[in-house]
Design a protein that fits this description.
This protein has about 200 residues and is an alpha+beta fold. The strands form two sheets. It has a seven-stranded mixed beta sheet, covered by helices on one side. Strands 4-5 form a two-stranded antiparallel sheet. About 30% of the residues lie in helices and about 30% in strands. Helix 1 crosses helix 4 (about 175-200). The protein contains four helices and nine strands. The chain has a domain at about 45-170.
Length: about 200
């Protein structure tokens, strides 16, 4: 029984550690197209960089449900996560020091990329709240940009803007097997403790 408990706990800790691992960057033909497992406020999200109009990218761009994040604070946390976890220099590419390697920002300007996360309609219908992850070649000027857009706002008309389409990562929900394994382990530990407590007071 103790061997089963040890195995269940080991599986649980491995799954937990994997959930907190660094994001997996999605790279195609040398361009950064998104990432999987980006940690935003303690939960893992997948993000894809998509060019087009807001209403094409976000299912009409006319309802709060069209966006993954529904407040400026959450959109800021997501954008900050991009700057800290995704736009990095590494073996996959120099996505921090070469912002033009981000999909949608390939341009002759080449020194800046603004990845836009929409979050709702802070001033009323038709005005989309946007937080941008402003990634510059000069790291000292990296930061967040705040603004408003429209459902027809088209990132293809800009050489340094692209939309971020976020979804909750599937790995944020533990598999039924992992949960049942953990449940069995905890139940076994409770029974063992109870037996020790009962025998100690006989």
């Amino acid at each position: 029984m103790f061997r089963a408990i040890r195995w269940c706990l080991l599986v649980f800790f491995i799954v937990s550690a994997a959930a907190e691992a660094a994001p997996i960057l999605q790279v195609s033909s040398g361009l950064l197209t998104g990432a999987k497992g980006v940690n935003v406020n303690g939960s893992p999200y997948d993000v894809q960089f998509v060019d087009g109009t807001c209403n094409a990218v976000f299912n009409g761009c006319d309802e709060l449900a069209d966006f993954t994040f529904h407040s400026q604070a959450d959109a800021m946390a997501a954008s900050l996560a991009l700057l800290q976890q995704v736009f990095i220099d590494g073996s996959n590419g120099n996505f921090d020091s070469q912002p033009e390697l981000t999909f949608g920002c390939v341009s002759v300007i080449g020194d800046v990329c603004n990845v836009m996360t929409g979050y709702g309609f802070p001033v009323g219908p038709g005005f989309v709240g946007i937080v941008g992850a402003y990634n510059a070649e000069v790291e000292a000027i990296d930061g967040l940009s705040l603004g408003l857009g429209f459902p027809i706002t088209d990132s293809q008309n800009s050489v340094f803007d692209v939309w971020a389409r976020w979804t909750l990562s599937p790995q944020s929900v533990p598999s039924p097997g992992t949960l049942s394994c953990l449940g069995v382990a905890l139940l076994a530990l409770i029974l063992v403790r109870r037996r020790r407590f009962d025998t100690a007071y006989i």
